[in-house]
Every structure is written in C-alpha cells, then in structure tokens.
C-alpha cells in the first residue's frame, strides 16, 4: 500500500488486523501514526516513513510478526508503549535522538532483537520495555536516564553487559528490572539510586560481581535471590534493611562485607536462606532484628 501525499495522520486501528498487508509507504506529509494503526498485520515486512513523522502511537506495529527491520524517523519524538511488542523477527532498532521516553512494553517480546541504540536524551525506560528480548546482548544507558521501570529488561537471557558508566541522574530501578538475566556477569549500580527494589536482580545466575553505591537504604525482597554464582557482596553503610529472601539461594556466597560504620537495623526473614557456603559475616551492633530463618 502506498498512501497518497495529502495524508498527514494514520488514525487509530486504520489497518489493524490486515494480515495480508505486505508493505506500507507513508507519504512525506504524514506526521503521526495512531494507536494500533498497523497492529496484528502479521504479513507486514516493509515500512517506509519519512523523517517528518514525529509520533508513533501505542501499539502501532504490535504483533507485526514478519517485520525484520525498521528505520525510525529522525524527527520522531514520541514512541508509544507496546509500539513493537511481539515483533518477533525484528533484529535491530536505532531509536532517534529526540525520543525522551521508551514506553511500557514498547519492544517486549522482540525475541531476536540483538542491537538497540538508546539515545542520550532518554530519561525514562518504562515497565517491560525490553522484557523477554532474549537475544539482546548489550545495553548502553545514557547520562540523562532517571528511571528504569518494573521488569524493563526481565528475562533478557543473553544480556551480558549493562553499561551504566555514563549514568548520573538515575533515581529508580524498578521491581524485577533485570530479573532472569541469566547471562549477566557484572553490574555497577550508579550513585543516586536509593533502593534496590524487590526481585531486581533475582535469578541472574551468572552474576559474579555487584557494586552498590553508598546512599542505598534498602535491599528489597528477593533482590539478589538465586544469584547462585555470586561469591561476595559488600553492603554499603547506608543500608538499613535487608529484605526477605534478599540473598536467598546464593549458593556460591562465602562472604558478606559489613563495616563497623554500617547503619543496618534489620535482617528480614530468610534473607540468606540456603546460602550453604556462607563463611563470613560480621553483624553490626545496630542490628535490632534478625528475622525467621534468616540464615537457615
């Protein structure tokens, strides 16, 4: 389908469910693609958009299961949630520099996506944004990033490297953000993050090195549970609470480093449950509660 030049806006669900549609060419006059405009066009393999397109709506190309490549417009400012969800042949995407937010589940289920460029202006990565992108190997996060949503990179099984070295403004890493990233070996959490949320790094089975900054107050429930290759962890002095199951089933964990200046007050239930090789932990004087089966 080649759309004529007067068309400026592809309205919501305009071509949704057109399973036999093979290609679409938008005219230079087009500036917006509406919500679910091409959703479930399972035969769609080619999309041509000019750089005049500034907005791609929610679910616009959701479940376009034959789409392998797309060149996003350089003037694009809005990339809606679910926009490319379950495009399971999409292998690479370069997000334009004007985009500041990657919405909920935008690329979730893009199971062969290996390469993604996240531009330096992105401040927010939404929940499940890249969830189940099982071939994704490396992510470089920018200095303006403020928030990583719940399960944003969950079950990215081949994700080896998450580079946060340029991140300066990150405030929040959501629940389960890297849950099940079974190939990840090392992570450095940037200064400014106040809490490690529940299940953030759960079942990162190859994780061997974690650097946590001072300023973290809580390590949440199951945050590092099942990180079975982790040999050692240094808990920042600022941490007040180790949550339920925080380091449970960390089978290789031998040493937990807590300094004399630690502010730790609570070690919750099962915090180190089934850490069978734990050899050394010095509990600070300020700890007033050790929960049930904390070291069982």
Low-pLDDT runs of 5+ residues are none
The profile of the biggest β sheet is: 5 strands, parallel
Radius of gyration: 22 Å
Shape: elongated
C-alpha end-to-end distance: 64 Å
Report the sheet-strand fraction.
15-25%
Which strands sit side by side, in order, in the main sheet? Answer: 16-18-20-22-24
DSSP helix fraction: under 10%
Note the total helix count: 0
Task: Let me know the average pLDDT.
Answer: 96
Based on secondary structure, the structural category is mainly beta
Order of helices and strands: EEEEEEEEEEEEEEEEEEEEEEEE
Q: What do these coordinates show?
A:
The chain has strands spanning 9-10, 23-25, 32-33, 46-48, 55-56, 78-79, 92-94, 101-102, 115-117, 124-125, 138-140, 147-148, 161-163, 172-173, 186-188, 195-196, 209-211, 218-219, 232-234, 241-242, 255-257, 266-267, 280-281, 289-290. The chain has 296 residues and is mostly beta strands. The strands form eight sheets. A five-stranded parallel β-sheet has the order 16-18-20-22-24, with no helix packed on it. The protein is built from no helices and 24 strands. It starts with 8 loop residues before the first strand and ends in a 6-residue tail after the last strand. Helices cover 0% and strands 20% of the residues.
């Amino acid at each position: 389908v080649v759309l004529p030049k007067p068309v400026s806006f592809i309205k919501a669900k305009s071509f949704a469910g057109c399973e036999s549609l093979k290609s679409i060419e938008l005219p230079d006059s087009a500036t917006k693609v509406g919500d679910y405009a091409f959703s479930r066009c399972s035969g769609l393999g080619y999309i041509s958009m000019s750089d005049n397109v500034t907005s791609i709506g929610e679910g616009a190309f959701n479940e376009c299961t034959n789409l392998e490549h797309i060149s996003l417009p350089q003037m694009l400012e809005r990339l809606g949630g679910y926009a490319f969800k379950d495009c399971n042949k999409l292998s690479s995407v370069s997000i334009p520099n004007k985009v500041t937010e990657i919405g909920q589940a935008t690329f979730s289920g893009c199971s062969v996506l290996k390469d993604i460029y996240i531009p330096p202006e992105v401040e927010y990565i939404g929940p499940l944004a890249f969830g189940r992108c099982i071939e994704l190997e490396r992510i470089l996060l920018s200095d303006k990033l403020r928030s990583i949503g719940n399960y944003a990179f969950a079950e990215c099984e081949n994700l080896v490297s998450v580079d946060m070295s340029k991140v300066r403004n990150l405030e929040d890493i959501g629940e389960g953000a890297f849950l099940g990233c079974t190939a990840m070996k090392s992570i450095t959490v940037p200064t400014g993050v106040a809490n490690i949320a529940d299940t953030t790094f759960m079942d990162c089975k190859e994780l061997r090195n974690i650097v946590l900054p001072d300023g973290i107050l809580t390590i949440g429930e199951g945050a590092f549970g099942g990180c079975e290759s982790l040999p050692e962890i240094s808990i920042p002095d600022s941490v007040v609470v180790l949550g339920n199951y925080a380091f449970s089933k960390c089978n290789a964990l031998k040493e937990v480093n807590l300094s004399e200046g630690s502010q730790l007050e609570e070690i919750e239930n099962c915090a180190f449950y089934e850490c069978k090789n734990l050899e050394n932990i010095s509990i600070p004087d300020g700890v007033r509660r050790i929960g049930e089966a904390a070291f069982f």
